[in-house]
Write a structure and sequence with these properties.
Organism: Ficedula albicollis
Keywords: Cell membrane, Cell projection, Cytoplasmic vesicle, Disulfide bond, Endosome, Glycoprotein, Membrane, Postsynaptic cell membrane, Repeat, Signal, Synapse, Synaptosome, Transmembrane, Transmembrane helix
Helix content: under 10%
Shape: globular
Subcellular location: Cell membrane; Cell projection, Dendrite; Cell projection, Dendritic spine; Cytoplasmic vesicle membrane
Family: Belongs to the VPS10-related sortilin family. SORCS subfamily.
Structural class: mainly beta
Largest sheet: 5 strands, antiparallel
Main location: membrane
C-alpha cells in the first residue's frame, strides 16, 4: 500500500521542510533549508519537485554551476501555477527572485534592489504582489515580480493588507500601519499606483498603538492608549471608526480577535484582574456592542509576545466551539453548539478502549481535551477537525475532574461531541483522507517508527500498516493533494545526520469502487440535551455507512437538508449591558442590567428629533435563522432622542505630542463622548489670540489646524454649550525650539567637600519647561532641577563622572564630564597675550586644546610629570586660565610642601622667563605668563591675591571684639547671647552660593607654610569662612 524514497535531501538538526499548502493534483514542491541559528540566515537549501503524487522527486538546479540559496517560496492562491522563490547570495550583498508560471517546471531569475522579508500575493489578481523589507519598506509589483515600485516606508511588519473583495470599493487599495516622523503610528490607505502624502487617506484621526491594525473580512480593528487606558476601535464595512463597547469596568489589558466570520466578531479580552485567562465576548453585526459568553478561558504566552487562547472552532459544523476554562487553578473543557450562548461539559465514555468501565460519572468526572496548536504545520494539533468531515472530532486529553497536562489519551466522536470513545492511550498525529472516510494516525513520539494505524469506520476499529521497512523519525504528514483523495506522504529522517525519507502511502487499492447513494445514511445534529433545533434550524448530514467499503471522491458533499425552527429562549442571548443570572446552561436564567448600565438612557449617538428603542435585555444570536415562536425582543419601548448636554469633551493634538516646534503645523482633534452635537456651539481659544466659534465641530470631521510662531506655553480651550448644559476641555501646548547643543561646564579639579557649580549650557536657550537631570558618580537616581546649574559637593577623592541630560519638549540631549577630586593641590592663574582673544571661538573643544598645549609645554620645560599638571581655560574673554598643580599619587601628605615649593618655583621661573609660548594662526606667537606676578602664587582655593590681607585684618577685628566681649561679659550677660544669635543669622545670610564666575574658582588648595608645619586648609568659600568665624566667637 506504500513505497518510500530517499531523494538525497540532506537532513540536519536545523533543516526545515516547507511544502505549499495548496497544489494541483500531481505536483509537489519541497524546500529543505539549513538555517544557522547564530548567524540568523539560511546557509544551504535544496528544492525538489514531484509531478506524480510524490512517487519520484527531481532536484531543481536553478543556476547551473552556481550554488543558490533559497530563503522562502510563495504560491499564488488564485493560480497555483505561479510561484515566486526568494534567493540570497552567500555574502548577503544582493537578492534575487525566481519566478515560475508552470508549477515550478521552469524558473526565470529576476534581480531586485532590496531584501525581501515577506511577499503577499493579491487575493484576487494573480500578478499583483507586495514585498516587505527588513527596513520597513513596501514595494509593489503588477507583473509578478518583474518590476517593483516603492509604495511606502516605515510600515509595521505584518500590518499591511490588500483590499478585501466585496468590501473595499477599489481592489488596488492597500491598508497599512506606518510610523510618522514624530515617532507615533497611524493607519493609512492608498492605491498601488500612487501612495504619496497627497494621495494617501487617513481613515482614523489621531495616532494608533504600534502593531494594532488588523483588517479582517468586513471589519478593521485598531487601538489607542492614553493615560494608561487603552481604547479599541472598529470600522464595519469601511464606515467610520467607533469605539468598541465592552462592559464599562472590563478595563481590558489585552484584546485578541478570535473570529470575524458569519457577520459578527468574537473577541477574547483580558480584563484588569486577570493574568492567565481571558473572557470571551460576542458582538452585534457591526462589531460595536459586546456581550459576555464565557469567563476565564485559559491562555498561554508564546514567544514574541504572542498569546494563545484555549478556544477552538469545530470545523464542519457552524456554531460549535470547544474551550478550556480555568477556575481556581483547575482547567475543564466545555462545548457550545450555539456560538457561546450555552456551554456544557463533555460527556465521558462509559468504557475505555479495552472495554473496561471508566467509572467516570458526572458531575465529578468529565472528558477534558488539550486544545493546543501544533508548532509543526504538517502535523495535527491535539484536536483535529475538518470542514470536509462534519461531526468528526479527534482529540488528546483525559477523564477526571480537570485536565491533566501529561495525560494525552486519544478520544474520538463522530456525532459532533455528543458521544465519545477512547481509541489510543497516547497522543497521535491525525490525518483525514477522503472526507474523513479514512483516518490515519501516527504516534507522536521521539523514537523512530515504521507503523501507522488507519480506520475506515470513524475510529471504531483500527488496522496497522508498515509504511516503511526501516524505522524513521516522523516529521510530518501530507495528504495529496487534499482531503478528497486517498493518497498521503509521510516524511521524516532515519537518523540525526541522515537524508530526508519520504514515504508515499496510497489507500486507493483498498477500496474496490466509488460510493453510490445506497452507501450513505443521514445523521442529524443534536446537542448534549438532544435538541435538534440548533441555531434556529435542524441540520442533517450524509455519512457513509460503516458496512460500505467505497471511495467518497471529489464530488461528495456532506450537507443534506436543513429546516428552520421556531424561536425559543435559547435563541437569544443577553444584550449589551446585561448579564445572565446563572452560568453555563440554564434555559430559565434571565438577563439583568449591570449596575452601571441604564437601559432607558438614550444611546450616545442619539440625535435630537430621532427615535430610539430601549433594550429589553435580549438580542437574537447572530446567524441564528429561527422564525416565529418566542420573541424576547418584542414590546420594545420607543423614545424620542432628547436634547442632552455635551459630556466627555476632549481636545488633543494629532500625534498626541503636547510639545511642538515654532512654525510647526499641528492639528487639534475635538471629540465628544456624549450629548447632542447638532445644536451645540463650540468656542475655541488657541491661546495666542486666535478665537472662533464652530457648529457641529465634532461631526464635520474637519480638525482645527494651527501654527504657533513664538516659543511659549499656550492654553488651548474648547467650550461646548447648548440649552441643556455645557462642557469644557483644556490642553496646554508647549512650543519650544528643539535643543541643538549641550555643554556641561565644570571645573575639572575640585577639592573634597568643596561646593562646586555644575552648569549646563544649552542652545538655544529655552526658559520654558526645560528639565535638567543630573547624575553624580554611580547614582542611578538623578537629581532634577529647572535651573541650568546644580551646586553640589564631593565627599570622596578620585575621578567622579558627572552626567547631565536636558529635556525640552520632545528633544533631549546629554553631556558628561569627569571631575578629579583631591584633598590638596595648587592653583596658579595664567594669562595670555591679547592676540589669542582674536581667535577665541569660546567653545569647549578650543579651550581644552589650549589647556593641553600649555600643560605639555610646561611639563617639557620644567620636567614635571605631565599627569600632575592640568591647565583649565576659562570661558569668556579675555582669555584666562588656571594651572592646577597636583601632588603625585604616591607621595605622603606630610612631606610634600618641599617638593611642592620646588615645583611651584620651577613653574614660576619658566613663566616669568617667557619660556612658554605657542604659535597661532596669522603669524602670532602667544605668550603664557602668570596672571599677577606680584601676588602670592600659592593662593588658597583660587581666590584673589588680597585674601591673605583680608584674613589678617578680620582676625585682628575678631581679637578686638573678643576682648570687648570678655571685658563687659559680667555687666551685660544678655549681649553675649545676642552676639551669638546675630552671628548665626549672619552666617545664614552670607552662606548661600554665589553663582558668579568666581564660584567656579573656589578650589580646595594646600596652604604653603614652613617646612616643619603640616599643610592646612583654612577654608575655601565665603560661607565656610563666616561659619568658622562664628565658632571662634562662640568659644
Amino acid at each position: 500500500m506504500g513505497n518510500s524514497q530517499s531523494p538525497g535531501l540532506q537532513k540536519t538538526s536545523s533543516a526545515e521542510m516547507t511544502l505549499p499548502r495548496k497544489r494541483n493534483e500531481k505536483v509537489i514542491l519541497i524546500l529543505t533549508k539549513y538555517y544557522h541559528t547564530d548567524m540568523g540566515k539560511v546557509l544551504e537549501s535544496s528544492l525538489w519537485r514531484s509531478s506524480d503524487f510524490g512517487t519520484l522527486y527531481t532536484k531543481l538546479n536553478l543556476q547551473p554551476g552556481i550554488a543558490t540559496v533559497i530563503d522562502n517560496f510563495y504560491i499564488c492562491s488564485t493560480n497555483k501555477k505561479k510561484i515566486i522563490l526568494v534567493s540570497s547570495s552567500h555574502n548577503d550583498r544582493d537578492q534575487s527572485l525566481f519566478i515560475s508560471t508552470d508549477e515550478g517546471a521552469t524558473f526565470q531569475k529576476q534581480p531586485i534592489a532590496f531584501f525581501v522579508e515577506t511577499l503577499l500575493f493579491h487575493p484576487k489578481e494573480e500578478d499583483k504582489v507586495l514585498a516587505y523589507t527588513k527596513e520597513g519598506k513596501i514595494y509593489v509589483s503588477v507583473d509578478l515580480g518583474k518590476k517593483w515600485n516603492l509604495l511606502q516606508e516605515r510600515v509595521s511588519k505584518d500590518h499591511f493588507f490588500w483590499a478585501v473583495a466585496g468590501v473595499d470599493g477599489d481592489l488596488d487599495l492597500v491598508h497599512m500601519e506606518i510610523q510618522d516622523p514624530s515617532g507615533g503610528y497611524r493607519y493609512i490607505t492608498c492605491q498601488i499606483q500612487n501612495c504619496s502624502d497627497k494621495t494617501m487617506t487617513v481613515p482614523f484621526a489621531g495616532s494608533t498603538d504600534r502593531d494594532s491594525l488588523t483588517v479582517q473580512d468586513d471589519y478593521i480593528f485598531l487601538q489607542t492608549t492614553s493615560a494608561n487606558r487603552t481604547k479599541y476601535y472598529v470600522s464595519y464595512r469601511r464606515n467610520g471608526f467607533v469605539q468598541m463597547k465592552l462592559p464599562k469596568y472590563a478595563l481590558p489589558k489585552d484584546l485578541q480577535i478570535i473570529s470575524t466570520d458569519e457577520n459578527q466578531v468574537f473577541v477574547a479580552v483580558q480584563e484588569w484582574y486577570q493574568t492567565d485567562t481571558y473572557n470571551l465576548y460576542q458582538s452585534d453585526p457591526q462589531g460595536v456592542y459586546y456581550s459576555i459568553l464565557l469567563e476565564n478561558v485559559r491562555s498561554t504566552k508564546q514567544p514574541e509576545e504572542n498569546v494563545l487562547i484555549d478556544i477552538l472552532e469545530v470545523r464542519g459544523v457552524k456554531g460549535v466551539f470547544l474551550a478550556n476554562q480555568k477556575i481556581d487553578g483547575k482547567v475543564t473543557t466545555l462545548i457550545t453548539y450555539n456560538k457561546g450562548r450555552d456551554w456544557d461539559f463533555l460527556t465521558p465514555p462509559d468504557i475505555d478502549m479495552n472495554g473496561k468501565p471508566t467509572n467516570c460519572k458526572p458531575p465529578d468526572c468529565y472528558l477534558h481535551l488539550h486544545l493546543r496548536w501544533a508548532d509543526n504545520p504538517y502535523v495535527s494539533g491535539t484536536v483535529h477537525t475538518k470542514d470536509t468531515a462534519p461531526g468528526l472530532i479527534m482529540g488528546a486529553g483525559n477523564l477526571g475532574s480537570q485536565l491533566v497536562e501529561y495525560k494525552e489519551e486519544m478520544y474520538i466522536t463522530s456525532d459532533c461531541g455528543k458521544t465519545w470513545r477512547q481509541v489510543f492511550e497516547e497522543e497521535h498525529h491525525i490525518l483525514y483522507l477522503d472526507h474523513g472516510g479514512v483516518i490515519v494516525a501516527i504516534k507522536d513520539t521521539s523514537i523512530p517508527l515504521k507503523i501507522l494505524k488507519f480506520s475506515i469506520d470513524e475510529g471504531q476499529t483500527w488496522s496497522t500498516h508498515n509504511f516503511t521497512s526501516t524505522s524513521v523519525f516522523v516529521d510530518g504528514l501530507l495528504s495529496e493533494p487534499g482531503d478528497e483523495t486517498l493518497v498521503m506522504t509521510v516524511f521524516g529522517h532515519i537518523s540525526y545526520r541522515s537524508d530526508w525519507e519520504l514515504v508515499k502511502v496510497d489507500f486507493r487499492p483498498s477500496f474496490p469502487r466509488e460510493c453510490t447513494d445506497e452507501d450513505y445514511e443521514s445523521w442529524e445534529l443534536t446537542n448534549l440535551q438532544g435538541d435538534r433545533c440548533i441555531m434556529g434550524q435542524q441540520r442533517s448530514f450524509r455519512k457513509r455507512k460503516i458496512s460500505s467499503w467505497c471511495i467518497k471522491g471529489k464530488s461528495f458533499t456532506s450537507a443534506l437538508t436543513s429546516k428552520v425552527c421556531e424561536c425559543v429562549n435559547t435563541d437569544f442571548l443577553c444584550d449589551y449591558g446585561f448579564e445572565r443570572s446563572a452560568p453555563l446552561q440554564s434555559e430559565s436564567s434571565k438577563c439583568f442590567a449591570d449596575f452601571w448600565f441604564n437601559p432607558e438612557a438614550p444611546p450616545e449617538d442619539c440625535v435630537l428629533g430621532q427615535a430610539y428603542t430601549s433594550s429589553t435585555g435580549y438580542r437574537k444570536v447572530v446567524s441564528n435563522v429561527c422564525e416565529g415562536g418566542v420573541d424576547l425582543q418584542q414590546n420594545l419601548a420607543h423614545h424620542m432622542c432628547p436634547l442632552t448636554a455635551p459630556k466627555g469633551l476632549q481636545i488633543s493634538i494629532r500625534g498626541e505630542s503636547l510639545a511642538v516646534r515654532p512654525g510647526e503645523d499641528i492639528t487639534f482633534i475635538v471629540q465628544q463622548e456624549q450629548g447632542d452635537v447638532l445644536s451645540t456651539k463650540y468656542q475655541v481659544d488657541l491661546g495666542d489670540g486666535f478665537k472662533a466659534i464652530y457648529v457641529n465641530l465634532t461631526m464635520t470631521g474637519e480638525p482645527i489646524r494651527h501654527r504657533y510662531e513664538s516659543p511659549g506655553i499656550y492654553r488651548v480651550s474648547v467650550k461646548a454649550e447648548n440649552v441643556a448644559g455645557h462642557d469644557e476641555a483644556v490642553v496646554f501646548v508647549q512650543v519650544n525650539s528643539p535643543l541643538q547643543a549641550l555643554n556641561l561646564e565644570v571645573v575639572p579639579v575640585i577639592g573634597r567637600n568643596q561646593e562646586v557649580n555644575l552648569t549646563a549650557i544649552i542652545l538655544p536657550k529655552n526658559p520654558n519647561l526645560t528639565v535638567f537631570y543630573w547624575w553624580i558618580g554611580n547614582n542611578l537616581q538623578p537629581l532634577l532641577t529647572l535651573e541650568s546649574f546644580l551646586v553640589t559637593t564631593f565627599a570622596e577623592t578620585g575621578d567622579i563622572r558627572v552626567t547631565v541630560q536636558v529635556s525640552c519638549g520632545s528633544s533631549m540631549l546629554q553631556d558628561s564630564k569627569v571631575v578629579h577630586v583631591f584633598d590638596h593641590f595648587h592653583v596658579l592663574p595664567l594669562k595670555f597675550t591679547k592676540h589669542l582673544d582674536m581667535y577665541n571661538p569660546d567653545i569647549p573643544e578650543w579651550r581644552e586644546d589650549i589647556g593641553r598645549v600649555v600643560t605639555r609645554l610646561l611639563a617639557k620645560e620644567t620636567s614635571i610629570p605631565e599627569e600632575t599638571l592640568m591647565t583649565v581655560v576659562k570661558p569668556g574673554l579675555p582669555t584666562a586660565a588656571d594651572l592646577h598643580v597636583l601632588l603625585p599619587a604616591n607621595q605622603p601628605k606630610k612631606k610634600r610642601s618641599i617638593t611642592s615649593d620646588k615645583r611651584i618655583a620651577a613653574i614660576k621661573q619658566a613663566l616669568n622667563a617667557h619660556n612658554i609660548s605657542f604659535f597661532l594662526r596669522g603669524g602670532y606667537w602667544v605668550l603664557v605668563t602668570l596672571a599677577d606676578s606680584g601676588s602670592d602664587s600659592q593662593r588658597i582655593g583660587g581666590g584673589s591675591g588680597y585674601w591673605a590681607i583680608v584674613v589678617l585684618f578680620v582676625i585682628c577685628l575678631v581679637a578686638v571684639g573678643a576682648f570687648i566681649l570678655y571685658k563687659f561679659k559680667r555687666k551685660l550677660p544678655g549681649r553675649n547671647v545676642y552676639a551669638q544669635m546675630h552671628n548665626e543669622k549672619e552666617q545664614e545670610m552670607t552662606s548661600p552660593v554665589n553663582h558668579s564666575e568666581d564660584t567656579q574658582n573656589i578650589i580646595q588648595g594646600e596652604e604653603f607654610i614652613d617646612d616643619d608645619l603640616d599643610s592646612q586648609t583654612l577654608g575655601n568659600a565665603r560661607g565656610n569662612f563666616v561659619f568658622s568665624l562664628y565658632i571662634f566667637i562662640s568659644s
